[in-house]
Amino acid sequence: MSFSVCDHALLRHRMASLRDRATPSNAFREILAEIGAILVTEALRAQPETTRPVATPLEIMEHPVLACPPPVLVAVLRAGLGLLEGARRVLPEAPIGHIGLVRDETTLKPSGYLQRLPPGLETRGALLLDPMLATGGSAVAAIDQLKSAGCARIQFLCVVAAPEGVARLVAAHPDVPILAAALDRELDARGYILPGLGDAGDRCFGTEA
Ligand SMILES: O=P(O)(O)OC[C@H]1O[C@H](OP(=O)(O)OP(=O)(O)O)[C@H](O)[C@@H]1O
Ligand SMILES: O=c1cc[nH]c(=O)[nH]1
Ligand SMILES: [Mg+2]
Fold first, then answer.
1. What is the CB < 6 Å shell around ligand 1?
2. Angle at CA 103, nearest 5°, toward 107 and 127?
């Protein structure tokens, strides 16, 4: 199994503001984007490299560059759009896909309402973006969809993970590495992560009651 928490002081600093109930929606979106940029940067740390000649103003050198086209960025709607904003800033050349899922608040089961995936998933692989890994039902469903579309190399990037969600995702898709900004304590009776940050989609788009 591969579950890791991104070890970065700036990330932990940003997480304090993201979790804070007093942080308004516009600031929440901006911080989520910054965290998306940090997580994608970390996820690509060990990408295969090659070299190409680069002419500086003084001489020609062989410079390291990425050996393969970047992975597809796939956002799980809605809250994944917040991470996507920052992911696009650090990987502007990556194609983008969307998977729409919403969790039934009573059964906690996800249902799908949209899938738009670009070509190239088979060769590029995907970084799947969703801030919350709670019961794990949504992540498992999104990865099922990506695999059905022919995508074999997937990394799941989230902001807050619950132990229950990590266990479920690892059991269902042991080949998918999970990178989180934080591992929290547990789920409450309504399936919310504790201490968590509340409903990421609602906080992102100002739809909380
Ligand atoms: O691990 P799970 O128990 O499946 O819960 C996690 C899901 O819940 C949230 O989405 P939500 O269903 O609230 O949709 P939203 O982003 O539109 O608010 C979150 O962004 C995940 O997709
Ligand atoms: O704590 C949680 C759990 C699921 N989805 C969220 O947005 N937050
Ligand atoms: Mg929500």
1. 76-79, 101-103, 108, 110, 130-139, 165, 191, 199-202
2. 135
Question: How remote is the CA of residue 50 from the centroid of ligand 1, in Å?
Answer: 38
Residue 66 sits in which domain range? 3-205
The answer to whether residues 128 and 159 touch, using CB atoms and an 8 Å cutoff, is no
* ipTM of the complex as predicted: 0.98
Specify the number of domains making up the chain: 1
CATH number at residue 60: 3.40.50.2020
Asked if 199 and 193 count as a contact pair (C-beta separation under 8 A), the reply is no
Reading the chain (209 residues) residue by residue, the pLDDT tens digits are 599 999 999 999 999 999 999 999 999 999 999 999 999 999 999 999 999 999 999 999 999 999 999 999 999 999 999 999 999 999 999 999 999 999 999 999 999 999 999 999 999 999 999 999 999 999 999 999 999 999 999 999 999 999 999 999 999 999 999 999 999 999 999 999 999 999 999 999 999 87
Tell me the two tokens of residue 205.
């788009």
